[in-house]
Amino acid sequence: MIQSVWDELPQHYPGVDIDAFVIMPNHVHGIFVFENRVGAGFPCPEKNVQAQTKEDAGTAPLRKILGLVVAYFKYKTTKSINKFQDTSGCHLWQRNYYEHIIRNEDDLNRIREYIIYNPVQWITDPENPENVGAGSPRPK
Question: Does 121 map to a domain?
Answer without folding.
Answer: no
